[in-house]
């Protein structure tokens, strides 16, 4: 762990996952953050892939201040509010045709929970009450609440809670880059998609409600992108068995991959979409479930959607969301994510040429990841106890670059870091990220060699 300014501070009453302390944030602007000791950090992961439009955007702050001066809260059972109405309309306009009903929440886990519950209520409302199983992928991440965790495929996060929840069926995520099977990528894509059909048949199609997937993987897989053939086949299989397709775009949505939705890269229209993170880009806790009218109407007709959160459609959060959407659209940040994503990818590929421990570079747009391995040929993992990716994050942090790590192979082994700067980055930021990451990788390489 980094020797941070926090080491001299008194114990905190606050706790999260661990005892790790970090410096105090002083201020943030654009792609940089400063701690109270004046050290500057380049936000190379947009926090947790959140701060898509950068920090302290003056137009967003102004819009929030204007809303604050009017009303910060008006409960949705007592009042409608204009920012929520306008944001719902603008969100619907950014979605594929027919996906035009919007339900606001305060974060990604809530967005996923909402998708699971609306799917279930739709089945009940339309005479398909036997359907309740939600198939998902392993590895995957869909959230920390028990419903979202039940469809999450990341062993250490769910293991302690498994007796408390109804764990859902999992199929392997399409980790084609690990396969040494003589198939080409097209065939591998179909092979992994067909595992969904086998699982639906194994479970009994009449019991299967939905399939949830991240169109471009997030933290659990390290920006996993399936072969093109995968996406259309998955859509086809869901259609064939009346299984609803849920795209979890909590991380990949709002422009991060170079399209507003990652699913657009393959022209897939899912039945439900979960959004959060970049949707309000850290200016307010906000997320959304987007659904088609044909799913919402039968539920509203049969007693209503039995679900909701106190802060849903909060006017201040929605005013922030609207201003963020204005920034994304008026500055073509989606296009910038595509352009800068290519440059970032080229730099990460360059680092892979320099450092043999980089086994794979993958992703789309500004959702990129680097996987570290012991052997590039076999893709054998590094000794898990070395915590190589976590260590790389610390070495980068000490050098003023923030990146994000997770375990690649389901949670207990495998190392990757996500490199996902805000969508406002320019060429000079990409060069700074590549240079600092290169220094951190060199330091990690030396440490691993010394430990051998
Ligand atoms: C794909 C995906 N879904 C859901 C979530 C959960 O979001 P939150 O942490 O806002 O509840 C995350 C968070 O990382 C995510 O990446």
From TrEMBL:
User: Which keywords does this chain's UniProt record carry?
Assistant: Aminotransferase, Pyridoxal phosphate, Transferase
**Which cofactor does this sequence's record say it needs?**
pyridoxal 5'-phosphate
Q: Gene3D superfamilies per the record?
A: Aspartate Aminotransferase, domain 1, Type I PLP-dependent aspartate aminotransferase-like (Major domain)
Which InterPro entries does UniProt cross-reference here? Aminotrans_3, Aminotrans_3_PPA_site, PyrdxlP-dep_Trfase, PyrdxlP-dep_Trfase_major, PyrdxlP-dep_Trfase_small
GO molecular function terms attached to this record: pyridoxal phosphate binding; transaminase activity
| Enzyme Commission number(s) of this protein | 2.6.1.-
Give, as one word, the top-level EC class: transferase
Q: Which residue windows are transmembrane per the record?
A: none
Family statement drawn from the similarity comment of this UniProt entry: Belongs to the class-III pyridoxal-phosphate-dependent aminotransferase family.
Name the PANTHER family for this protein. AMINOTRANSFERASE, AMINOTRANSFERASE CLASS-III
Q: What is this protein called?
A: Putative aminotransferase
């Amino acid at each position: 762990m980094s020797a941070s300014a926090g080491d001299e501070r008194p114990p905190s009453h606050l706790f999260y996952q661990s005892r790790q302390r970090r410096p105090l944030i002083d201020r943030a602007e654009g792609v940089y953050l400063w701690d109270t000791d004046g050290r500057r950090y380049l936000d190379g992961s947009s926090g947790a892939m959140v701060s898509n439009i950068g920090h302290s955007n003056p137009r967003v702050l102004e819009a929030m201040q204007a809303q604050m001066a009017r009303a910060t809260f008006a409960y949705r059972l007592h009042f409608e509010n204009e920012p929520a109405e306008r944001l719902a309309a603008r969100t619907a306009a950014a979605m594929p045709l027919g996906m035009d009903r919007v339900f606001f929440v305060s974060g990604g886990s809530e967005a996923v929970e909402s998708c699971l519950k609306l799917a279930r209520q739709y089945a009940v409302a339309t005479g398909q009450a036997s359907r309740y199983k939600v198939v998902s992928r392993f590895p995957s991440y869909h959230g920390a609440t028990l419903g979202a965790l039940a469809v999450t495929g990341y062993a250490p996060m769910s293991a302690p809670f498994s007796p408390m929840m109804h764990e859902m069926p999992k199929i392997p995520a399409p980790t084609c880059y690990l396969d040494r099977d003589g198939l080409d990528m097209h065939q591998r894509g179909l092979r992994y998609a067909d595992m969904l059909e086998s699982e639906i048949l194994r479970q009994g199609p009449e019991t299967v409600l939905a399939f949830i997937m991240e169109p471009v993987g997030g933290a659990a897989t390290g920006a996993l992108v399936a072969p093109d053939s995968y996406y259309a086949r998955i859509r086809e299989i869901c259609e064939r068995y009346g299984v609803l397709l849920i795209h979890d775009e909590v991380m990949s949505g709002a422009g991060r991959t170079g399209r507003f939705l990652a699913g657009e890269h393959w022209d897939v229209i899912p039945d439900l979409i979960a959004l959060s993170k970049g949707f309000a880009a850290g200016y307010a806790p906000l997320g959304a479930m987007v659904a088609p009218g044909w799913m919402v109407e039968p539920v509203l007709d049969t007693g209503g959607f039995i679900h909701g959160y106190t802060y849903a459609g909060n006017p201040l959060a929605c005013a922030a969301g609207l201003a963020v959407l204005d920034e994304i659209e008026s500055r073509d940040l989606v296009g910038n994510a595509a352009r800068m994503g290519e440059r970032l990818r080229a730099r990460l590929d360059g680092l892979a040429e320099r450092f043999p421990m980089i086994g794979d570079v993958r992703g789309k747009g500004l959702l990129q990841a680097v996987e570290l391995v012991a052997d590039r040929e076999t893709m054998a993992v590094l000794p898990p106890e070395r915590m190589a990716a976590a260590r790389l994050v610390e070495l980068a942090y000490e050098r003023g670059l923030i990146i994000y790590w997770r375990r690649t192979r389901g949670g207990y082994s495998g190392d990757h870091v996500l490199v996902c700067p805000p969508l406002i980055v320019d060429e000079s930021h990409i060069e700074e990220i590549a240079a600092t990451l290169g220094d951190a990788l060199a330091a990690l390489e030396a440490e691993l060699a010394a430990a051998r």
